[in-house]
Amino acid sequence: MVSLKKSGKIKRGEKKVKAEDAEVSCSSNVIPGDAHKCLRYSLSSSFTCERHLFLKADASNESALLIGNVPSYLDLDVIKGFLSEFVTTPIDGVFPLRSNSTGNRFDVGQLTIRIVFSSRTGVEQALVNAETVGPFVAEKYGPFDDTTTIQAQMAAYQSRVVDANSLMQQVEEVMSVHDEEAAAANRAARKRRKVADEDGWITVTKGSRTSAPESKKMREDEPLNYQDAKRKHKKVDVAFYNFQIKESKMKHLNELRAKFEEDKKRVAMAKAARKFKPL
C-alpha cells in the first residue's frame, strides 16, 4: 500500500512539472508588439557579405509583418522565399509601403514592405524564429538586379572608357568637319569683300588684298550680290571733311551778318519816316 501511494505521488509530481514546463514554453513564444528581429541573408555566392532585414509586427494589422532595409533591387518573391523556410502560415500578399529615396520611388533606395499572413500565427513564427535561421542566399529564391553593386558600377565605368585609337579617330573626324566649315566660311568672306552693301559701300578690312571693284561692273550672277548694278543712289550733300565744315559755318555766319544789316537799315528808315507829334 505504501509503495502504491508513493508511486502515485511521484506520478502526480511528474505531471505537475510537465504542466509548468508547458506554461513556460507558451510564455516564451509571446513577442512584444514593438520587438524588432533581424533576419540574415547574402546576395549570392559571389557576394557573400552578410546583410540584414529588420522584422517587426504591424500594429495596424495583427496578421501583418513589417520588414525594413529591403534593397530595391531584391525581388519581393525572394523575401517570401526566406519566410517560407521557417514560417508555415500561408502568405496572402506582399506590399511595398515606402522608400528612403527622393520622391518615395520603389526602384531605388531601401524599402519597407508589409507581409500579410492568413493568420496571426505567421507573425509570431516569423518573429520567434527569425534570428535562429539563416543566413539565406538570395539567388536561390529568385532573380535580383545587381546593377547597384560596386562591381557592376566598376564594369559600367570601364565600358565608358574610350580606347586611345578610337578616340583619336573621333577627334580627327570632328576636326576635319571643322576645317571644312572654316574653309567655306573664309571663301564666303572673300566673296563678300567684293560685294557692295545696300547703300553701295564696300567694307575694306586689313586682310583685304584685292581692290574693291565698282558696283557698276558687278555681274548679275555674282553670288552674295545684295544690290542691282544699275541702281542709282541719291546724293546727300553732307559736309564730310573738316574744311567743308569750316566753310559751311563761315557761309552761315555771313548770311546772318547780311540779314542783320538789312534789318538795321529797315529800322532806320522806319524811324526817319515817322511823323513828329509834340502832343
Automatic annotation (TrEMBL):
Q: Which GO terms describe its cellular component?
A: CURI complex; UTP-C complex
Q: Which Pfam families match?
A: RRP7
Q: Where is this region: Disordered?
A: 207-229
InterPro entries, alphabetically? RRP7, RRP7_C
Q: Which CDD domains match?
A: RRP7_Rrp7A
Q: Which family does it belong to?
A: Belongs to the RRP7 family.
What the entry lists under PANTHER family is as follows: RIBOSOMAL RNA PROCESSING PROTEIN 7-RELATED, RIBOSOMAL RNA-PROCESSING PROTEIN 7 HOMOLOG A-RELATED
Q: What is this protein called?
A: Ribosomal RNA-processing protein 7 C-terminal domain-containing protein
Q: What is the lineage of its organism?
A: Eukaryota, Metazoa, Ecdysozoa, Nematoda, Chromadorea
